């Protein structure tokens, strides 16, 4: 993956930077790769760029090969990853490239107001957008319900921000390298009650890519990591149609599918990268994935259980909160992080002795969730 | 498929209209369908609507199921179809829904100037958009080169328009029901030399959907049609990087792949639906697919060989030119047309005795092409 932050290069060049690193890591070139599963969420609106697949394929030497662009809001490249893994497992391809790219900063020519409106395109057009609801508001509603049900507090939310900024400070590719404190977080300006500034992830530019190969070929590559499960589910939109908004049902369905494929329970997971677009989203995800009990997400964060030295480390990379959130790149970046952690190659933010991780990538009003389990190859 | 034209309903309702017709035809409901492969190209830019997959899934009763949105410019839903067929053939799913929807008319709130700029997002951002190139210009460049190489004439282009308007007048779902003449076409205002008004397809609203089932299950459905080949290739962008722009290499690569899978030659094809976004594009496609010899596309049109009563009927539906072109719906609409023709259910525009058809759906600067062969099930 590239560093996440602000990039002034066109999207195909930014994507190329991640791809060439993935090619180097896997010791393959474009000729050996059979297809590209590509994610980009907002390029049409942000930079009037669609049909980006063949453009990036041209840049990375894969023109001619089949390329498909996926867009599933913030779950864009996780869905590309799911489709790629399915295709390889089913024997459609043996070696494929998966990745995503996004530019969300003013480098696009769009300011934060405009990008906020663009991001809101992933909510419901008929019932949500006309109310002025944007994504801080969407996740504020989910989190408020969680606070109502379980007594989750703003201070517990702040602990998530402090943890992820602390983690991000160890990750040289993170958008934010600075730490924060509970006091600073609780003193920030309100964005959408209960979220203050430090509860919200940034708009970032960045790209990520991975090479997926068949089980038969894996041992001919250096240090392969097993994809033991990928689950994918959707949920009703708009929010008003959901039975219980804080439950994030699609995450429960997707993780049940992924754990079933991997033949594991949540207790057997060593660490997680979850979609913490807002601090509250991490709390909901930690419960939906079964990493902590329902209602305990905020408590676990405040107790330090989800810190890198806790019993179930979450977002050792810094997460979306500190590592950054270039929409279409986020899903595959989680896969990169899991791969490096399982290999023991995560540098300063390496966790001790982790062999199995789970990635949770969510799109829109929790309308799409993809959950992936990666583990050391036996 | 819905009628193509102007629709004032939200995209999920428009898509639902096509889906419910497909469900009725296949005698299935949302519970029996395992996944949705969904296409929409420009909803983000046209109506600030992205992450549309779960929204349409909610509307059609498929919330919860895996949904993926594809976007590959004008080849959007053909690529969704390719991925769906691959998934079913590989045993990933047994019954899937594939389709697409688009709104391109002023019903979106965007006028023709704005939509032209939005469509241009599928060309190259760095080298083409800054020159003011929009899609009439892109295909004018390809066609001009063909005229230079082979002496193709504006009158031959006009014959394509006359033919497709004549065909569309027989199709009650076509955007345009009116016929035209060579004289009227040659007398129209110039859009992008050599194209005049009648050489250009319209901006349309519409939706289309098909149910794809495994070979093992097919005989339990009424009147199934075989998908005997689906090819998919990309080509370099921008245009300036192509060796010969009039050759449309991706169509040649994709058709070779599709014909190989179907174990046929071009001579064994009874009829074709090709991507005639402009009259010149049909001429290029007819050659790239091997339906006529290179250089003979214009001649064949003028001689009536590609008319519904000719030896190789092209675009009996009216094509994009007269049936209309709701971007993300066009690819699957071609599959609907092939299915109905092969079944003998195409009504007033039914061709005589056709058993095998080919569909050609192109995206962007011919950067993506998907070619599908459908035929009567033995």
Give the total of domains of chain A.
Answer: 1
**What is the number of helical segments of chain A per DSSP (H or I, 4+ residues)?**
14
* Largest sheet, strands/sense/barrel of chain A: 4 strands, mixed
CATH architecture classification of chain A: 3-Layer(aba) Sandwich
Number of beta strands of chain A: 10
Strand line-up of the largest beta sheet of chain A: 2-1-3-6
The CATH homology group name of chain A: Thiolase/Chalcone synthase
Give the largest interface pair and sizes: A-B, 59 and 59 residues
Helix and strand content put the structural class of chain A at alpha/beta
What is the N-to-C succession of helices and strands of chain A?
HEHHEHEHHHHEEEHEHEHHHHEE
Account of the protein in words:
Chain A is α/β, with parallel strands linked by helices and 378 residues long. Chain A has a single domain, classed as Peroxisomal Thiolase, Chain A, domain 1, CATH 3.40.47. The first copy, chain A, has 14 helices and ten strands. In chain A, strands 2-1-3-6 form a four-stranded mixed β-sheet, sandwiched between helices. Chain A has a four-stranded mixed β-sheet with strand order 7-10-9-8. In chain A, α4 crosses α14. The longest helix of chain A is centred in the last third of the chain and has 17 residues. The radius of gyration of chain A is 19 Å and the shape is globular. The two termini of chain A are 26 Å apart. The model of chain A has no long low-confidence stretch (mean pLDDT 97).
